[in-house]
Amino acid sequence: MCVQVTPRVPKFIMKMLKIIKGNIAKFSHYRCGILYYEIFNEKGNAKYMFPIDIFDKKDIGTATFNKEHKAINLMRYIRKAIEGETLIEYK
Q1: Which positions ≥6 away from 12 have C-beta within 8 Å?
Q2: What is the pLDDT of residues 46-69, one digit of tens each?
Q3: CA end-to-end span of the chain
Q4: How many angstroms separate the CA atoms of 37 and 30, rounded?
Q5: Burial class (CB within 10 angstroms; exposed 0-12, middle 13-18, buried 19+) of 2
Q6: What are phi and psi of 32, to 5 degrees?
Q7: Which of 13, 25, 66, 69 would bridge 37 by S-S if both were Cys, CB 3.0 to 4.6 A apart?
Q8: Could you write out the DSSP letters of every residue in 33-53?
Q9: Are 38 and 26 spatial neighbours (Cβ–Cβ below 8 Å)?
Q10: Residue 91: pLDDT band by 50, 70, 90 thresholds?
């Protein structure tokens, strides 16, 4: 009897895909060295907010932060927000 094993995708990766796939990140506001971006879905509804610490020079380097990005382009910071539990999900 052959048993087919399907690989399990970790919940973390599934959450990342849900957040970034086809979505846009728009600059929301700045406060105390932190940039805040909101992630909007295809319908234009804000779904998430996450911070980017611009004083973390090792991580930021010479990055340019525009008013709007594809969410996938900010994946590094979204991942950090998930891991640091600073990602806010709007209900």
Answers
A1: 82
A2: 999 999 999 988 888 888 999 999
A3: 46
A4: 9
A5: exposed
A6: 50, 45
A7: 25
A8: TEEEEEEE-TTS-EEEEEEEE
A9: yes
A10: confident
Burial readout 33-47 (b: 16 or more C-beta within 10 A, e: otherwise): eebebbbbbeeeeeb
Break the chain into its structural domains and give their ranges: 23-89
Tell me how far apart the alpha carbons of residues 41 and 89 are, in angstroms, rounded to a whole number: 12
Could you tell me the two tokens for 80?
């950090």
Helices (H) and strands (E) in the chain, counts: 3, 5
CA distance 41 to 48: 9
What tokens were used for 24?
């846009």
How long a stretch of residues is the chain? 91
The letter for the amino acid at 89 is: E
